[in-house]
Amino acid sequence: MSDQQACSGCGFTHQCICHRIPNTESQIHLVLLTHENELTRDTNTGKLLQHSLKQCQSFIWQRKTPPAELLALLNDETHQPLLLFPSDKSIECQQAVSDTVSERTPLFIILDGTWQEAKKMLNKSPWLQTIPQVHLDVTSESSYTLRRNQDSGHLCTCEVGIELLKALNEAQPAKLIEDYYQHYLKVFQADKSGHALR
Ligand SMILES: [Zn+2]
After folding, report:
1. Domain-located, residue 35
2. 13 CA to middle of ligand 1, Å?
3. In the list 16, 56, 128, 154, which could disulfide-bond 30, CB 3.0-4.6 Å?
4. What does R_g of the chain's alpha carbons equal in angstroms?
């Protein structure tokens, strides 16, 4: 691109990688509940999930009430909402899925923000506190390098989605999204340095 305008799809200025966005599908339903601070962070990786997984929706977090469309999903008897939030009462996500009655589609909610923001979102939202909490047993290290002050061991939003798909034996979409994510990280560094990836 020569006009130095950032692509409205992938957000990059010196190259566009929109053609690399995979088109994947999953048995589960994924909801990103996004803190408004994330909207202005170019280091947000939730959008990668949203772009590449058909069953992924994103909503802006509101303290008192869930967005109407999300509320409808939460109350829909064909879904089983599960909140990805490691705590002393969370259960492993694959276990949670096998405990779910088969007529219900697991609806995983990922709090899309920093760890501090995620805790705040949960603490301030009674409507989130009633949703069963689940966690991932992740052994792989995060390769997320875009935020320096991030605690090690914390996965970014896109990695959480990838690990969730892996844990639920959805290897194919997980692989495609992971390849795109890894490419995105490399392009991000090049783009911020003012050039295309060489
Ligand atoms: Zn693009």
Report:
1. yes
2. 8
3. 56
4. 17
